[in-house]
Amino acid sequence: MVLQPGNVRGGDVRFARQVVLGRWFMAFASMLILSVSGATLIFGMYSKELKSSLGYDQRTLNTLAFFKDLGYNVGILAGLINEVTPPWFGLAIGAALNLGGYLMIYLAVEGRTARPPVWLMCIYICVGTNSQSFTNTCALVTCVKNFPESRGIVLGLLKSFTGLSGAIFAQIYLAIYGDDAKSLVLLIAWLPVVVSALFGHTIRIMPYPSRGDSGSGKSSAATTTNQAFFHFLYISIALAAYLLAMIVVQKQTSFSRAAYAASAVALLLLLFLPLVVVVKQEYRILKEVEESLREPPTVTVEEPSALQMAAAPGQSTAIEEAEAEEAKQQPSSSSSCLGSCLKNMFSPPARGEDYTILQALVSVDMLLLFLATICGAGATLTAIDNMGQIGQSLGYPANTVNTFVSLISIWNYAGRVASGFASEILLSRYGFPRPLMITAVLLLSCAGHLLIAFGVPQSLYAASVVVGFCFGALWPLVYAIISEVFGLKYYSTLYNFGTAASPIGAYLLNVRVAGYLYDVEAAKQHGGTLAGGDKTCIGVQCFKKSFLIITAATAVGVLVSLVLVWRTRSFYEGDIYAKFRDDGAAAAKDLLASGDSAPAAGKPRKDEDAAESTADEVHAGPEVGGEAHVHAE
Asked: Is the separation of the CB atoms in 53 and 64 below 8 Å?
């Protein structure tokens, strides 16, 4: 067969359309969207400009930081909207909120609008950061639904790109605007909007193709999928290593605008490198479809057996009687539903079973986990939000403060990846409980807080690494413990409840402790008052007392987590995933028992289903190739 040039071009166009409309390009687009969705982590890079331009004291600045965290962590509205609308609609709402909130902050900082009151600035930053809950929900949840067999890997990978976003923002803003912190706010306002506009339409839920199982317990398709995601992971590690190298080099040498531009170009090449994996996966899928279409379709006709036909009238009568009985009991059951829920609220099932929402919320285990998270997340978030003022008070130059924020972003990424993979390996191989991992993370974070408290010379580099790693490592552990102890039935609601610990801890430790004590020390340095004058505090004493208190609070979190370890020790000593394997084995046994009437026909049908599912994965029909391939059954 001789291929004509027109056929080759037509095939290339169809393959390009397959790539863009495919599941793997959707995963790549989700990575890009989430890589610019972590602006909350770089608040320390422009907080100094907010403070000086608007005349804020430290407590007011920390109040803004609290509303920043509140907007980022309150994602209930985003979840509800995503339930009833396509993902692109939620991404569009998030882009509008991001542009509106951060653009108003930029105009206020630049003095192009009248100085807004504090409450209005709190609304601006809360609206701007709430946009990130829309991008997280719409992109991440959609990607998980499109790859259900690899959901754990998908979550860890995509959240790691969110962790890198702070360092990505820093490199791009240096290349475009130079060392101008006010323009960084402008970059945060427009860059996520552009990325969502370019790639948001590709984020959609696609039917996941059913795969034939080889009987080994894991399908070959799932293995291939995991291999592709590991390739994405290797690229993300290379990206993190490049960002870390750029931070070190830019610290040691003076970069020109052209050098910053060249480093940003290299960064963009690494961000788009996953496209190679996407094209490779789609080409493999195309070849599988072509192979399956060369085989003749298998026609399988199943007829009900005589025994099934004889049992049908009796079954129909039984079903009708059950429905009638259920209809009689429905009014009484609905009237007693509330009473039953309240009655069972304090009678939870065994750990690992599905708790109701009320049972989980009043559980001692949830209370302990929530308190430990308040101490751990609140303390590390306080350090992250105040990193700009900490560096300034200890005499570090402005470009070095940006280095600290970038280090936090990179090690936040490392913490998310390391805690997810390491905790799973330690748990499965050695029975190491996840709550004890939280204890270790909180102990490590105490070292970072003490380095900040005592202001050891040049120690802020190590402190930013420790704080960033611990902040990133904490969250995968918290989310995993919630799913393991309280079950998966109401996991989406309980997941958001765990997230709420972060702004609570930040308000208590950041606003009420760090902000207040900083202003007290600054007032001592400026004649006992901060009214109408310089509100900057210089010296180790500015944050010493607050971070000693924060270290003590983290130590309390360590003790609380040890109580949780003791309470759940018998649960984690057992096989916590046995329930899922038993359920799967029971389902397989039932399937075999119901399907033993036609064993000979099983294999042809299985082969045909595999071919159909592969064709579906390339959007069989006019979606990609322009032809609809019909398999008779």
From this structure: no
